[in-house]
């Protein structure tokens, strides 16, 4: 997230938006999200890609394809067995359930523990993980 | 937001040695219960003993107690009911370490409180009643696991039973061996009727759902257990029967924290308040009531000695 904000293209994007009169969506009109901070307890470290595929696989199994789509679950960051999972604010319990139903990632047994839920990425990082994702 | 209710104060992370990574977690002063097997404690003890080469020194055992405490703290739990199984598939026994843990918990005022639980699996009502009579005095918490209508009815009628778990396995512990097992899983879907619910409410017996069958099954079987649970919840709610949610963990990787259990309850159709009560208030009330009954302060439901003068 910080990388995007620090990008050299940001001023140019702002100019283009102003020239073409493209106003960014007001915060009140954006869809509300929640960020679930998770920790994976396992014998050996879990890879990011394996975790992402496990979340989508278990999500589709538990909630069904349509249910999974309605929850808007996606993995924002995952490093050293801790990560942040994004979902719509109405689907927090479904998201935590999906994470709780994960028993295996990449053939190894895991516990996916929810550390907390926050309304912002920064909140999830500072309150629960003490870590910033690139 | 309910999830944020857990996060008021900071705690340092645990040290279940190789499995841990540094992370600060937090929970409020409320009690969060879980109901786990004595096998889980034995597994943690054996794992930690292997890693840290415990030789039998008393100091090593103190660190073991701390390791177990910190594991449950890491899962945001404060009170643990450790159960052994008695009935159909033989009788388990508590290891010496688990017994020490109960004693230590009583005397030391540990961070985590441990309670002795017994889970009865009986073929019929007569066996159930005899086992209840035999085991009640030895347990802080007595549960009955059955999918048989008659056994559930008998358990509901007994005021000595604290919890009924309406999901069971066939003899030979099918479904507990591996993640894709569960060939012998039965639920009491259509068998929790209005009469049983009414009796359970009057006797203050709770109904409980453990997460383990849901972790061990997939596809149709899991959906069937969900369906049965969803069928039971409205009846239990109608009569105000207390509902409990717990992990029922048999091994380390089956453990789940209160966050996860609450979310699991929401999937069943329980409300926010019901799930919160199911993991904290109701189990603490049951244990408090049992303690009062044991000490003689509570004579029967509604009859309590307030002062001895």
Your description of this structure?
The complex is a heterodimer of chains A (134) and B (309). In chain A, 42% of the residues lie in helices and 27% in strands. Chain A has helices spanning 2-5, 10-19, 48-71, 92-100, 121-129, and strands spanning 33-42, 74-79, 82-88, 104-105, 108-118. Chain A has a 5-stranded antiparallel β-sheet. In chain A, helix 3 runs antiparallel to helix 4. The longest helix of chain A has 24 residues, at 48-71. Chain B is α/β, with parallel strands linked by helices. In chain B, helix 5 (149-157) packs parallel to helix 6 (194-203) and helix 9 (258-268) packs across helix 10. The longest helix of chain B is centred in the C-terminal third of the chain and has 24 residues, at 272-295. The N and C termini of chain B lie far apart (47 Å). The A-B interface holds A 34, 39, 41-43, 61, 80-82, 92-97, 99-101, 103-104, 109-111, 113-117, 127-130 and B 1, 3-4, 6-7, 18-26, 74-75, 179, 211, 214-215, 218-219, 252-253, 255-257, 259-260, 262-264, 266-267.
Q: Unreliable segments of chain B (pLDDT under 50, ≥5 consecutive)? A: 1-28, 170-183
The biggest sheet of chain B, with number of strands, parallel, antiparallel or mixed sense and barrel status, is: 7 strands, parallel
What percentage of amino acids of chain A are in beta strands? 25-35%
First CA to last CA of chain A: what distance? 7 Å
- How far apart the termini of chain B lie comes to 47 Å
Cα-atom Rg of chain A, whole angstroms? 17 Å
CATH topology annotation of the largest domain in chain A: Alpha-Beta Plaits
Summarize the structure.
The complex is a heterodimer of chains A (134) and B (309). Chain A is α+β, with helices and mostly antiparallel strands and 134 residues long.
């Amino acid at each position: 997230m910080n990388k995007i904000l620090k990008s050299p293209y940001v001023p140019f994007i702002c100019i283009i938006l102003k020239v073409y009169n493209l106003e960014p969506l007001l915060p009140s009109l954006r869809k509300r999200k929640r960020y679930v901070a998770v920790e994976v307890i396992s014998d050996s470290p879990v890879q990011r890609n394996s975790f992402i595929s496990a979340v989508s696989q278990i999500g589709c199994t538990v909630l069904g394809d349509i249910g999974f789509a309605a929850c808007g679950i996606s993995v924002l960051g995952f490093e050293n067995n801790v990560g942040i999972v994004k979902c719509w604010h109405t689907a927090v319990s479904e998201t935590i359930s999906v994470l709780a139903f994960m028993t295996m990632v990449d053939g190894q047994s895991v516990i996916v523990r929810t550390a907390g839920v926050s309304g912002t990425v920064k909140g999830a990082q500072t309150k629960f993980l003490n870590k910033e994702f690139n | 937001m309910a999830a944020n209710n857990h996060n008021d104060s900071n705690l340092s992370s645990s040290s279940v040695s190789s499995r841990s990574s540094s992370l600060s977690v937090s929970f409020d002063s409320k009690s969060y219960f879980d109901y786990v097997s004595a096998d889980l404690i034995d597994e943690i003890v054996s794992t930690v003993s292997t890693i840290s080469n415990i030789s039998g020194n008393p100091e090593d055992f103190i660190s073991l107690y701390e390791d177990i405490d910190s594991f449950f703290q890491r899962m945001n739990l404060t009170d643990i009911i450790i159960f052994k199984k008695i009935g159909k598939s033989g009788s388990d026994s508590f290891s010496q370490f688990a017994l020490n843990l109960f004693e230590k918990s009583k005397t030391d005022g540990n961070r985590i409180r441990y309670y002795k639980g017994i889970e009865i699996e009986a073929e019929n009502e007569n066996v159930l009643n005899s086992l209840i009579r035999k085991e009640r005095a030895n347990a802080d918490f007595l549960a009955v696991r059955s999918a048989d209508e008659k056994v559930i009815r008998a358990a509901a009628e007994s005021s000595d039973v604290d919890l009924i778990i309406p999901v069971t396995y066939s003899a030979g512990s099918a479904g507990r061996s591996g993640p894709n097992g569960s060939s012998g899983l039965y639920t009491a879907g259509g068998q929790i009727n209005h009469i049983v619910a009414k009796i359970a409410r009057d006797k203050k017996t709770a109904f409980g759902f453990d997460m383990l069958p849901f972790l061990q099954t997939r596809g149709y079987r899991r959906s069937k257990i969900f369906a049965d649970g969803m069928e039971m919840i409205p009846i239990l709610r109608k009569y105000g029967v207390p509902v409990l949610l717990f992990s029922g963990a048999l091994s380390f990787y089956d453990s789940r924290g209160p966050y996860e259990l609450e979310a699991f309850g929401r999937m069943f159709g329980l409300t926010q308040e019901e799930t919160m009560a199911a993991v904290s208030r109701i189990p603490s009330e049951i244990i408090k009531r049992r303690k009062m009954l044991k000490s003689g302060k509570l004579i029967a439901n509604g009859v309590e000695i307030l002062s001895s003068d």
